[in-house]
Every structure is written in C-alpha cells, then in structure tokens.
Amino acid sequence: MIELDGIYKSFYRKEALRDVSFSVKEGEIFGLLGPNGAGKSTLIRIINKIVEQDKGYVSFRGKNLTQESLKDIGYLPEERGLYKTMTVEEHGIFLARLRGLTRSDAKMNLQKWLEKFQIEDWSKKRIEELSKGMAQKVQFICTVLHEPSFMVLDEPFSGFDPINVALIRAELSEMKREGKTVILSTHDMKSVEEICDSAVMLNKGEKVLEGKISEIREQSKEGKFAIQFQGNMIAFANALWTGYEILDKEVLTDDRFLVTLKMRGENTFNDLLQTLLPHIRIESAWEVLPSMQDVFIKEVTKEKEN
After folding, report:
1. CATH number at residue 279
2. How far, in Å, CA of 285 to CA of 290, rounded?
3. Residue 89 neighbours by CB under 8 Å, 6+ apart
4. Total domains in the fold of the chain
5. Confidence class of residue 146 from pLDDT cuts 50, 70 and 90?
6. How do residues 63-95 score in pLDDT, each as one tens digit?
7. I need a labelling partner for 110 at 20 to 30 A (CA). Which of 155, 223, 226, 238 fits?
8. pTM of the predicted model, to two decimals?
C-alpha cells in the first residue's frame, strides 16, 4: 500500500529522520511507535504531503506519492483542529469536499456515520458546543468521511474514555475486515498488541525495530514461564533448586499457586516440567511473552543507555 525508502528530514540542521525505510501491506493495521520526539509526527506529515523529505522516496500503491494520492488517504492529526463556529454538518461537508466528494455525497456519508455512532442530533451543533471527547469523535468521522482505503491516525485514542476507545478500536477492526489499511501512531501499547498486525518503532529519528507484532514479542522474550499448580509451595521451590529463579508468586487458594519464573543456563521448558511433576500437580503452564509495553520500554531504555 505504501513504502518509504531511505527517508531523511532535518529542520534547521537538526535531523528529525535518518534513513527510515519500511512498508505497509494492504489490508493491515500497522503500528508507528516511539517515544515523544522520535520523529513519528514528521514521518506522518511527509506521508500526508504537509512537508517534503530532504532525501528518500515515498510510494503509494506502487507509484510516487502525489497530492492526488491524498484523495484516497484519511488523516487524523494529533493536534485536533476543527473550526469552532462551524456546525458538525458544515464541517464534515467542508472537509469531505476537500477530498473530492460532492456536497450531496458528503452529506449522505456524514448522516450515515452520525447514525452509526448514534449522534444524529449533533448535526446542527457548533463545534464550540461540543465537549473535547465529542469533538474528537466528530474529527474521526471527518477523517473517514470520503471513504479512504488508507488512513493515518495520530493518537486516535487520546482524550477518549474507555467506552469510546473501545468504539474506535472496533471501527478500526471493521475497516480491516473491509480490506482497508491503517497506520496507527499511538502510545496505547495494549491497543497495538490487540489490533495491529505489524509495527515499526522509531527512536531519535531512526528505525530501531520492525516486524509482525507476534515476531517482535517472540524476539524479545527472556525465558520466563508461568506455572499454575496444586500442592506445597515449599516443595515447588525446593524442586527447582538453582536452575530457575522465581520472579513472582500468587496464592490462589491454600494449596493452589500461580508462579512466574525465569530459566537459568541451558534449561528448557521440558526440563522444567520434568523437574516439577514428581512434586506437584501442574494445572497449566505457559511461556510468558513480553507485552508490547515491555518491548517499548526495553528498546527506549536501551537506546538511552547507548
């Protein structure tokens, strides 16, 4: 759907992006991750032709990205910007027409989305009458009003309560089922983990991580396992001896426990089970993969140390 190759960008001799390359497949939700100041917003502005890269190439559907391409792109900026004196209807029609829709098509699409979100009575309200959360919901609708096949959403969950976060996440999942493509820039790692297919992470203007979410978590694992068992906790600990380190323990009942531990040396999961089986009754056991939150913190901390 979109490919970035060797993107460089600087402002007043300060590098914002340095040799950034990645591609987003059609029909996937793609996470754009990184701490504040990593270069994510600059990259998003390049994709939306707001600023031009100093070096590098951006292609959209296999062709050079142009202003004409923007008619098939929906953009939700982090800095929310709606004209406060316009009504919801006027604003939606105005923005949709900038993306090439006729007035009648824009009005019809807006009505459909207002009904979908059950906010039809907002149509004649001025933007200044809306709460922050209400205005952000309107801005999301304006982003998708022209029915783009590709969307770039910068912190779309910011300022939303949990109910509306769930609403937007469900809408993104529905768009994916329809074959649409989304770049999602967010600090909400739980959403990244649950709805993104792949991701790239930037730090200090450079790419530090890229891949499928499952692969990123797999590559970052640290030999941690969880064991839920019935038996004696002392017998469990003694059986492990020095080959394993207990990291956490949760008491479920008098004789049932959930323990998280870490392997030492060359021990395998099978070794762990064989060590424990004579001493306790294992109810369940699994490898603990790091969350995307863990991966994010580890990568950013590693970069700071370097």
Report:
1. 3.30.70.1150
2. 16
3. 107, 110, 123, 124
4. 2
5. confident
6. 888 888 888 888 888 776 788 888 888 888 888
7. 155
8. 0.80
